């Protein structure tokens, strides 16, 4: 019985695609569904928080100014004249924290990524990460018991030295005018916030600097650049967007910090730049934590309205940061 020979297979023919169920297809669908649901869930939570704040704050937003006269902690002010000093105190303490923390974080990140020996860099990296796990109440205690006595002589000198006295006599009050011990002022609160956001910014900046393409660094060194010139020409331009992202992360932490500011700062409801005077400023988050247990009725609505303003402020900061980063997305070390 003759057996029919099968035609020779064409080596250039495309491989046959198996039709039917392929391994892993069900897993891909499940994973895609879970990922999509997680993204939608985050949007739902964000929308729910915004709606809750708006609904609870609405009575305070539409109330007449005279309605707040019975709210003791508002000191007879209407909603907006009460909120503006809190918004100013929140902003100025966060700016002080960024001015101190960002240069330190960039320096630490560059040292860990490009200067320190490997073992030392690993140890410093672990130490920085551990600082991020310290509760804010510990930072508040540290600020009261250690930082305030340490900076008090410096603040005294800043307030009484010849240059400050000459400026006060010929120009007017300065930002260092009127220091009174202990150092329960907005500058001390900003320094505590700077230490608190330092680990977040440093960890992000360090990882961004480590992602700099090796070829860029070697090309700069091959052209005769020193290590610092290589960092300035290759590392810093590549990591610029990452530094902005890290700064915005730190700013978000500083804007919403509550317990440390509440413990360190002597509160006030004024808008000025007297950084060393106690009883001048207060942040929104610390003010809510301070007065919420005793608030009732319209006072609760006013506190929630201030929380809504803080929510909008934080959301706006993040939107601006994303817009800045998107302008340099092709060069970003954070994307």
Automatic annotation (TrEMBL):
Pfam families: BPD_transp_1. The chain crosses the membrane at residues 39-62, 82-112, 124-144, 186-205, 254-275, 302-325. Keywords: Cell membrane, Membrane, Phosphate transport, Transmembrane, Transmembrane helix, Transport. It comes from the Bacteria. Residues 87-321 form the ABC transmembrane type-1 domain. The keyword Transport applies. Residues 1-21 are annotated as: Disordered. SUPFAM superfamilies: MetI-like. It is a multi-pass membrane protein. It is found in: Cell membrane. Belongs to the binding-protein-dependent transport system permease family. CysTW subfamily. Part of the binding-protein-dependent transport system for phosphate; probably responsible for the translocation of the substrate across the membrane. This is Phosphate transport system permease protein. It comes from Occultella gossypii. The gene is pstC.
């Amino acid at each position: 019985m003759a057996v029919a020979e099968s035609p020779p297979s064409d080596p250039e023919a495309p491989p046959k695609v198996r039709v039917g169920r392929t391994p892993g297809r069900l897993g891909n669908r499940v994973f895609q569904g879970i990922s999509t649901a997680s993204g939608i869930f985050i949007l739902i939570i964000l929308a729910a928080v915004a709606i809750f704040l708006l609904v609870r704050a609405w009575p305070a937003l539409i109330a007449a100014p005279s309605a707040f006269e019975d709210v003791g902690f508002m000191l007879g002010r209407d909603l907006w004249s009460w909120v503006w000093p809190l918004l100013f105190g929140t902003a100025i303490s966060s700016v002080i924290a960024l001015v101190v923390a960002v240069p330190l974080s960039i320096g630490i990140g560059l040292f860990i990524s490009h200067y320190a020996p490997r073992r030392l860099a690993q140890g410093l990296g672990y130490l920085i990460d551990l600082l991020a796990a310290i509760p804010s109440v510990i930072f508040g205690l540290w600020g009261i018991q250690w930082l305030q006595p340490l900076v008090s002589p410096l603040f005294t000198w800043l307030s009484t030295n010849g240059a400050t006295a000459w400026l006060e006599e010929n120009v007017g009050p300065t930002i260092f005018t009127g220091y009174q011990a202990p150092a329960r002022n907005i500058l001390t609160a900003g320094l505590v916030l700077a230490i608190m956001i330092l680990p977040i910014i440093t960890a992000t900046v360090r990882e961004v600097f480590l992602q700099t393409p090796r070829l860029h660094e070697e090309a700069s060194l091959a052209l005769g650049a020193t290590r610092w010139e290589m960092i300035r020409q290759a590392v810093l331009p590549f990591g610029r967007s990452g530094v902005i992202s890290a700064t915005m992360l730190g700013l978000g932490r500083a804007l919403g910090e509550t317990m440390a500011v509440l413990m360190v700062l002597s509160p006030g409801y004024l808008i000025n730049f007297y950084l060393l005077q106690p009883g001048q400023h207060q942040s929104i988050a610390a003010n809510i934590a301070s007065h919420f247990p005793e608030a009732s009725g319209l006072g609760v609505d006013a506190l929630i309205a201030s929380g809504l303003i803080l929510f909008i402020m934080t959301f706006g900061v993040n939107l601006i940061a994303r817009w800045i980063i998107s302008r340099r997305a092709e060069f970003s070390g954070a994307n």
